[in-house]
């Protein structure tokens, strides 16, 4: 069972970087991603938005395997800044999981 | 086992914190390219290399070793490696393994750029051994604390030297300084332009018409983040070279795979292979404008098609 992490939910809420509110789950990002990772980025962002930290941590290698190439954001009809969101997740994991800042 | 993300990022951040670069190189290796060019030291406008071109031969030697570790039981020793690296600069040994021919190759590209700027009558200097790496990789990996401290050091270096304009040579350094620094360094307002932008604005004219047949690979960072799309095309249009656009080009360019080299080498090579196929379909030899794209695509092409830095083509046509 996944548990909601208030710590992560708060970090996302207080962040001026992470913002996926405009995402309408159309899937264009997944379709144009050169990596072809189904998780990136919309499923992952949904886990973040509802505070499922365990699920996010299960996908650490996915988070670091994003190329930050920006093809997704370039084609996102809702103009979500996807690479910035991925970078926010790296920062969160670096600080809370890897003890790196 | 995949390569251990935590330990690799730790080594890169430790290096940046302790030695002011993710992969610290000697001042001689960083400035060797400028030998004999008589570039003035400092000045209001400086050519800032950010060390990326100089680092590629070392990264190349290193990534060959890293790829052997991927999926090997030896990955568990990376934690130990991180501890050793705190006391001994392991990049120094990797630098010794770098190919001399490759170093000459990348040094020549920087010389091309400096000579093109001179030809365009741009008045600029160079900070030589004082120049620091930009911090781009640590920013991308989200190690923001280390990046913020380093960005301040880099900004102080420019301020101390009275720099008012910076000319960059690669997309990652351009983006880091122009777009990221103002978010991290209070009051950072130095004008930053890529050499391609400076040359395109200068009105420089070619001295030779060339017959090169090129498949142009746009850098993701230049095209999507820094709006550098038209400038290389405008410079090439005057030269007579035939420019072929791949199916994915301009703002919709396809990544070279390079950003994954340090953590996921085999995935990086897969993406590079896909891009090489697209560029081959367009026809001609491949021209890149980023040293990371260059090394990634060259490796993936395995000699099946020539891959060159755009500065080589421009140097030939503009007579430097």
UniProtKB/TrEMBL annotation, chain A:
Residue intervals of the 4Fe-4S ferredoxin-type domain: 14-43, 56-86
Cross-referenced InterPro entries: 4Fe4S_Fe-S-bd, 4Fe4S_Fe_S_CS, HdrC_iron-sulfur_subunit, Helical_ferredxn
Short name of one Pfam family: Fer4_8
PROSITE patterns: 4FE4S_FER_1, 4FE4S_FER_2
Keywords in alphabetical order: Iron, Iron-sulfur, Metal-binding
Cellular component terms (Gene Ontology): plasma membrane
GO molecular function: iron-sulfur cluster binding; metal ion binding
Keyword Metal-binding belongs to the record: yes
SUPFAM superfamilies, A to Z: 4Fe-4S ferredoxins
Keyword Iron appears in the UniProt entry: yes
PANTHER family, per the entry: HETERODISULFIDE REDUCTASE RELATED PROTEIN, IRON-SULFUR-BINDING OXIDOREDUCTASE FADF-RELATED-RELATED
Name listed for the protein in its UniProt record: Electron transport complex subunit RnfC
Gene source species: Pontiella sulfatireligans
Originating gene: rnfC_2
TrEMBL record, chain B:
Domain (Cysteine-rich) ranges: 216-298
Gene Ontology MF terms: oxidoreductase activity
A single Gene Ontology CC term: plasma membrane
Stored Pfam families: CCG
Protein name: Cysteine-rich domain-containing protein
Source species: Pontiella sulfatireligans
